[in-house]
Every structure is written in structure tokens, then in C-alpha cells.
User: Fold this.
Amino acid sequence: MTPRKQRMLTVGLVVVGVSLAVGLALQAFQENLLFFYSPTQAIAGEAPEGRKFRLGGLVEEGSLTRESGELKVTFMVTDLKNTLPVSYEGVLPDLFREGQGVVAHGYLQPDGSFLAEEVLAKHDENYMAPEVAELLAEQGHPVDGKPAGPAKN
Assistant:
């Protein structure tokens, strides 16, 4: 084989190797991408079926129920237009409570409820997940003590 053919073969193998690595990286990124949806969007069918996504909103007052002697808890997440039932089995964050912002990672069940694998709550009095704050501001709910503008339709 001539030196020129060897160089062309080497360049071709490098291009194929880099292309394969980029393809695998993009596939892994796509599989691990989590999109944020509100209860209204999830109910409307915008959330992916059979794929993990993030559900955010407020924990509806009076909706929190716990199974006696178990870690199973159910509650309603609202965006002030619609509510979606959420079930979770595990230890909830210390700052989790009714009326507070929450983001849950999990799946939409065939019955229309949300099965959470992880629940995140506000980590202090001044923070709310940006997606939840934006969603609530659009609905006319005051965020961080500031009055929101008129609700958009």
C-alpha cells in the first residue's frame, strides 16, 4: 500500500470514529433530556407518554395524604388552572409542604396520574424553580411576594 493510501485510510477511520462518538453522545443526551410540563400541558397531552419528564406547580392545599406506616404519599399539583394527582414513595424533602412550589420527576400513568420517582421542593424562602415561577406568573399568582401582572389567556 502506498503512503498516500495509508494516509487516506487513516483519515477515513478517524472521520468514522469521530462520527460514531458524536452519534453516541447525541443519543445519550437525547435519552437523558428531561422536559418541564405544567399540569395543564400534561392533561392536554403535550407531555411524552412512556418517557420521564418534570412536572411542576404548587402543592394544592389540603391534598396531601400519607399511607399509615408507609412512605407512600399522594398529593395534587396545580398550576391554578388544572390539577394533576401525584403519587410518590419515599422520603419527601424537609421543605415540602402544601402551598409551596414543587417539581417532580417521573412518568404519566395510563390513568392520568403522575408517578414521581423524585420530588424537589423550594430550598429556601426566596427560591422557586424558574419554570414554576414563570408558569405561576403567567397565571396571575404572586411569586416571591411580588404581585403578578394580569393573567394571560
Notes: Strands lie at 36-37, 53-59, 65-66, 72-78, 83-89, 101-108, 114-121. The chain is about 30% helix and 25% strand. The first strand starts at residue 36 and ends at 37. The first helix runs from residue 3 to 32.
